[in-house]
Model the fold of this input.
Amino acid sequence: MQRLKWIAASGAILLAYNAALGGLAWWQRSDLLGDSAREAVVVAEILAEEVENSIDRADRTLSGVGEVLRALPSTQGLHDPYAHRLLIRRHAISPALRSLFLVGPDGTLRNSSSTPEIAPVDVGDRDYFKVHTKGGADGFFIGPAIKGRIDGNWLIPVSRAVEDRFGRIAMVVGGSLIPEAIERMIASHRVPDGFRVAVTLRDGSPIACLGLPSCAAEPDGSGANLAARFPDAEQATGEFVSYLPGEAGVGAFVRGGQYGIAVAVQADNEQILRPWKSKLHLVLALAVLGSAGLAGGIVALHHQMRHRRLAMAQLEQVNASLESKVAERTKDLAESEERMRGFIMAARDAVVIIDQHGIIREFNPSAEELFGYSAAEVRGRSVNMLMPDDNARKHDGHLEKGTPSGQRAIGRGREMIGLRKNGSEFPIELTVGTHPMGGDRVHVGVIRDITERKANEDTLRRLANTDGLTGVLNRRSFTEEGNRLFTLAERHDRDLAVLMIDADHFKSVNDTHGHDIGDVVLKALAREVASVLRTTDIFGRLGGEEFAALLPETDPAGAEDLAWKVVGAVRGLSVPLPDGSALKFTVSIGIGCRRDGVSSLDAVLKEADKALYVAKQSGRNRAVREMSSQTADVPAPPT
Done:
């Protein structure tokens, strides 16, 4: 009976020992797959954001070109030199584009940034042209990769339509994103071995890939459409997924929120687990040796009276073997920590590591260069010294909420304000990850200076909303703001009026004195009209020499009074000429007013346009309201 107890106890000890070794090996495997999954999420999020940013810059470039073309209809002709120079300038600040080009409403290629004399190629069958002629004129279009008909290179087409003053398509502004640029963007992140990457449009058409030969060989998408493989979610991850062709494995999926760009990252589990499998023989050897040692110890204890000295020697041998394994593991962990520190110190982005109390623990060279502090100056101090007071208070709130110990949190990049040593503030993009370390947790912040990006965004926003010559609102911005004010007036049944302002005999000014003097006249006209209008009025240029002013809270009598003030103010202007003489000019104004039965701003503009025609036919240099007979005599316009 006693012997059976020893056998049972021995079996239980050996089983527990081997179960512990097996559990450790399995934990290492799960941890390796988990790290790969998190790495896949980081790669997918960064790539999705960067590709969407690249497309957004292309969208803004096309919008800016469209606004200039809409303001200057003369540039829409074949081989127009000003339009060609415009395309070259905009292409120069858009490195992700291979070229910019213009397509006429008949589908004929009219201009390109790549050559001043382009053959009139018919591209009317291209999706980037047809989508705007079939109801998509107001939208931004990005399509699958196609082969260019000029140079034969693969390109990703993007386009926007340009409408004339009557809402008809006057031109399509197109561009071609470089597929290789997106592939270089993928390669720049040093995607680990064994990972496959695909970047697709919303419909699953691939535009760039890594590790997928079929995608790379057929960039037109004829051989691959990945939409059926993608999850129906904005973001997903897993350890055994099949987002991409090939064996199932660790993967992550992220879809951009603005243009629907999808990024799928998937790893080959076999390759990821190869280092782990290569060490399984060590675990097996440890299990065999440990089991043998434990068995020997049990036998020694059982026969301690006869074999005590032998049992002690065997036990010492087993302990030495275990200590050697522990020392080797400790050395590996130390080396791994040193490698990680080396990666942080060599990173091009600023990296700041803080503990759960907000105290700075690591501060890499890029952070020293960005904030102006040395690592010795900040280490051990609160991270609040790197941000203004308002942001510091918000940051303290985030730390108080925190992340439960043992979890890893990966934060998407968010914009905030940084504070340099010299007291200057600057915009930054911050991505934060939380990692357990030594029973506590640390927060790893990756920081990037986005001053230049914010300046570019402000410039593009201003160019998109104002007229490039006069500085007043362009047609699109005037129409958007006018529709908003008209809706408010309709809702509250308030007065509203519109002035259509046109420079008299402006063609003769251009013909006689040249377009440069004509531009000076338009600028002077815009300044003078703006000085007469009230701060609550909005003023814009609709095209050529035609301007419009919208007057909220203004009845017909008030609109006529203000219109005559504008006529009188312009009549008193004079533009100096190079020969020392002065040029005087006048304007004609048509007045339209909101009234019952008029349901849109467009109807009021048409009423004002009809009144403007009456003013022109009545001798110019005057203001006319179509619903009124008040067309008082004025002196003849100066010649």
Remarks:
- The first helix runs from residue 2 to 71.
- Residues 216-223, 403-410, 628-639 have pLDDT under 50 and may be disordered.
- The chain has 18 helices and 24 strands.
- The two ends are 130 Å apart (CA to CA).
